[in-house]
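Page 47, continued from p. 46.
Same chain as before, 359 aa.
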Amino acid sequence: MSAKGFMNTVKNARRGVSLAKKVHYSITLMITGLAGFICLSAFFLWWQEKGFRGSYLDSLWSMMFTLIGQGEFASYPHTFAGKITVFLVSIFGVAVLGVVFANVMQSIINSKIKQLIGEMMGINTCKFEGHVLLCGWNTKAAYILRELMASGTQAALIAKERPDELDSNVFFIQGNPSDRDTLIRGGIQKAHSAIILKDPNFGEDDSHSILTALAVEDTAPDVYTVMELYNPDNERYARYAHVDDILYSDSLVANITAMCTQNEGISPFIRDILSAADDGHSFAAFDVPEDYKGKTIRDMFGYLRSEGALPVGVITPPSGAGHIPSSAWISQVNPPDSMTVTLPMKVVCIVKDSGGQKQ
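Result:
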C-alpha cells in the first residue's frame, strides 16, 4: 500500500468512527427526548383532564398505551388541550418510537452479522474465560459439545470449516488447531481445558493430534488437555507432549458394549451416569476438604450420602512421588471403610443433575 493510500485509509477510518459516534449520540438523544416528551405529555394530561387529582402514573400509563398504538385511549381526553396532547403523542411519539426501535434492531443485527462474518473469516478472538476449547471436528464432537453445553460450560471450536449443526452459543474459530496464532484466537491461554480430537480434514492418523497437543503445551502449559487417540502405539508420543488424559474411543465403546451384553438391563444406568444432557445423574470428582484429613472413608462417604451423593471411590497420588498431574493419580473404587483420608485426595461420586447443572 502506498503512503497516499494509507493516509486515505486512516482518514476513512476516522470518518467511520466519527459517524458511529454521531449515530450513537442521535439514538441516545432520541430516546431521551422521547422519554421527556411522554413524561411532559402525561403531566399536561394530568393537569388539564384531572386538575392534578388522582395519580400522575395513571396519566403516564395512558400516554404509554397511546404511544404503542392502542386506540382505546384516543377518546379518553375530554378537554381540547388533552385531545391535542393525545393527538401529538399518537403522531410524533409513535413515529419517534419506530425510528428508535428500528435503529436499535439494526444495531443488533449488524453486530450479529459482524460476529458471524468475523467467525467465518477467522478474524475474531474468543473472549471466554474458563471455557473448553475443542480442537478438531469429527462425528463425536457434536455429542461432546452437547454435554458441555448441558452442564453450563462455555465452549469454543477450532476447525477447518464451520459445521452446519454447530450450536450458536459455541464460539467458532476457522483454522488449524495446531497453529499457535489460531489457538490464541480460540482463547487457549484463558481456557480451563482443551479437547484434542482426530480430525479427518487434517489426516487419517494421530500425527496431527500430537502436533496440536505440542502447540497447546507450548502456548498454554497449564491448560488441562484430553486427547483422543486411535493407535495405542502413539501414546508415548502424546505423553511427550505432556497430555493430561488420553482416551481410546473405540476401546471405550467396545468395553461398554461388552458390559451391556454380559449384564442385561444395565445400559440405561450407563447412559444415565455418562450423560449430563438430561435430568438424570452423572459422575463428578471433588477435592477432599481439610476437615476430613485423618478421618475414615466411612465418615466421609456417610456425609456425602446424607447430602444426596453416591460416593464410588477416591483418587490419590502415588506414594513417595513428587508433584504430578491428577490424571496420573491412582483410582480406588469402593475403598475399605477403615481407610484413612490423606490429602491431597479426590472423591468420585454419582450426583443428581438438575437442568444440566450438578447439585
